[in-house]
Amino acid sequence: MSETIVRKQYDQLAGVYDLRWKSYITNTLSFLKKWAEISPTDTILDVACGTGEFERLLLAEYSSQQIVGIDISDKMLAMSTTGYAYAKQKCSAYPQVSFQIASASNLPFDNDSFDVIVSANAFHYFDDPLAALKEMRRVLKPDGKVIILDWCRDYLLCKICDIILKGFDPAHQQCYTQNEFHRLLEDANFAVYRATRIRFGVVWGLMVATAILKN
């Protein structure tokens, strides 16, 4: 039910998403790109890729980067006929980049498929975050890494936003503290390799973690 609500909401937002959240998207995804330290030879899975902005950033530096993006919103991925650039249109010149409609909790890929898995600004929408993390672990290569960036409930304004959104936004599930987030990663058999919290502007307090498979 939750994924149906999220899909409907983002299908409706697709046409204005990049414009409405331009500053936030630019700041958070530029930070994520630097943090992730992705090699040009890595094969990447972007979970909840939205309109493909992270793909566009990566391809601007490494035009041969192998990337697969998944999202549950068809409209965020679709080729635009209205002048807006959605994911498939942004990356149409790169045959090694593909997009699929899929759930984070049911990834349509073989085991050990990706060197790097990223997910930005979406973890608070996952209705079963542990299932999503276990799926990421399954499709990650043994020496690969997962990088997740999301809102952090340790920040007061994010905590307030979390409370408000739970009451007014049916798509919103839950924000996590950094400790809660790390425990979820560990429960999914990941080891947190590198992590921090970071603030963008007055409101947005986020956390990021790079995790690897436990030995």
Automatic annotation (TrEMBL):
Keywords: Methyltransferase, Transferase. InterPro entries: Methyltransf_11, SAM-dependent_MTases_sf. GO terms for biological process: methylation. The keyword Transferase applies. The keyword Flavoprotein does not apply. Residues 45-148 form the Methyltransferase type domain. GO terms for molecular function: methyltransferase activity. It holds the Pfam family Methyltransf_11. It comes from the Bacteria. This is Methyltransferase domain-containing protein.
